[in-house]
Amino acid sequence: MSKVFNKVIERETTEVKRSFPSSDSDREKIFNKISEVTNGNLRMGLLMLEAMYMNYEVVTTGTPIIVPDWEGVIKNLAKSVISDRTVANLNSTRTILYELIAHSIPSKLILKTLLWELWGLIEKPAYKVKDVNKIRSSIVDAAAVYDERLSIGNKDIFHLEGFITKIMVVLEKD
């Protein structure tokens, strides 16, 4: 990814080149931070590189990486699904899902990101999950089912909400 980032910066205007450090080692540190945050996703990395340039006059190794808002929303959604398994919370998750879809976040990306967030949160002691491997297996099974339903069905919100409901039921049975 670093080579691609360097090529992009080199092909841009001199203003862009001046915004980033001239030192190769400093640039490499910034690029590695972006690569780590994006899990090697080049498209996301390029968007973050552009966001850093647009928001900061000078980008240094200490400049914070700008993470998309929707990822934080999905993280909070996953935390609420695990910690509060009530009908009221299910209604609030519907509102959050509507907002994400309204902001053009693809439903499959929402499902995938939610799956990975739940995967990581399950093992945390604060959530008191007894059989982590069993729950993870159930989450992946549910994600596979609802991913297929997203491909076949029309109303994405129903399938995303169904996935969250299924996860709440699985966690409640644990």
Automatic annotation (TrEMBL):
InterPro entries: DNA_pol3_clamp-load_cplx_C. Signal peptide: none annotated. Pfam families: RCF1-5-like_lid, RFC_C. It comes from the Eukaryota. GO terms for molecular function: DNA binding. One of its GO terms (biological process) is DNA replication. This is Unnamed protein product. It comes from Candida boidinii. The lineage of its organism: Eukaryota, Fungi, Dikarya, Ascomycota, Saccharomycotina.
